[in-house]
Specification:
Layout lengths: L9 H9 L7 E5 L12 E2 L14 E4 L13 E9 L13 E5 L11 E4 L12 E4 L21 E3 L7 H9 L4 E5 L3 E6 L4 E2 L10 E2 L2 H12 L2 E4 L10 H9 L4 E5 L9 H5 L5 E5 L11 E5 L2 E6 L3 H19 L9 E5 L11 E10 L2 E6 L16 E5 L11 E5 L1 H5 L1
Parallel strand pairs: 4-5, 10-13, 10-14, 11-12, 14-17, 18-20
Antiparallel strand pairs: 1-9, 2-8, 3-5, 3-6, 4-7, 15-16, 16-17, 18-22, 19-20, 19-21, 21-22
Helix pairs in contact: 1-6, 3-6
Length: 414
Amino acid sequence: MRFHRQTITVEQARSKLLARITPTTQEKVSLGEAFGRILAQDLVSPCDYPGFDRSPLDGYAVRATDTESATVQQPVYLQVVEEIAAGDVPKMALGPGMASRIMTGAMLPVGADAVIMFEQTVNPGEKVQQVGIKRKLTAWENVSRRGEEVEQGSVIARSGEAVDAGMVALLASFGITEVPVYRKPTIGILSTGSELIDFDQPLRPGMIRDSNSLMLQMLVLQAGGIPVLFDRLSDHSPAVKATIQRCADRVDLLVTTGGVSVGDKDIIASLVDEAEVELLFNHVAMRPGSPTTAAMIGSTPLCALSGNPGACHLGFFLFVAPVIRKMANLPAEPPRWRAILAADCEKPSPFPRYLRGRIEVRNTTLYAIPDPPVKSGNVSRLKGSDCFIVIPAGGRGKRAGEEVEILCYQHYLQ
């Protein structure tokens, strides 16, 4: 199979993979742990909000009918019967000719139906026994009514929404302590290659520090999954199939890096020839990373990415991140933007080429700035970029000033 691969487009490959993915199960977490999670059910208000009629400003609670004749020239004077701070329960009901000094957020006393701000009274701010009202008020003017913002029983957050800081504040306001969310998917990470050593080990001749494993851990966290790092798999391992099956049984998705090409030691390429493994694709029309492979090992999907760091990063964005997002019940397709290319990219390619770069706004126009030409295996350009610039297949490429499609992975993953 490794030498007779059927090439499919990125979009076809992603569709085939996503067709086998379902959202994870639901769980309840505490409100403090819900940040960044995806709601699995609609949440309904258990009470009105505000829970009582309250003042939105500092001033005096009054009866609107008592201010009918009030003007700047002829203020109406009302007897001040008490002072109400936020958190107080009013002790005095207002009758004709009465007012209560009231602070922002405080409960309105019985009988009051309007609030006048200090600035619209005689001697504003001073504590007086009689307050002079300098203008007419209408019923419920400057009052936040009970249930005005949210009525009891109404939906305050919908399934599929991400729990952000604002939603946490909203749910806390209603005393909601547990939140139903989709379980974060567990993503297994398995590097292959006898040439790899741990990143904290001294470099030996012919060896390479394993940067992909740590990069994938960070990307999984950024995409909303829980990374599970497995021991590295040697090219000479006699139990490749058993090891991969054991890893796949422990996670929702298994991601491998390396071993997908056509070399003698490319163990993942050999694995998909096994009868028990259902191959989804093993050759994608993309540069870099065309040998990117996906398969089903039992009920667990496998994404086998290139060992090339640049191609591994690209493969994660195009295939792994969409799987994690679909498992979390989020839109899986990466957003596509249009931008003006800021530099020539004329290298020919039989497949669409995904160039690493960054976006920049110049005078309200979005520009895509490609990284300087480097080999895709170079790691020096993995930092500082925020998008992939898509250069269509063909011999001409694209020139500066032409419009191109870009995939902003920083926007997508965050």
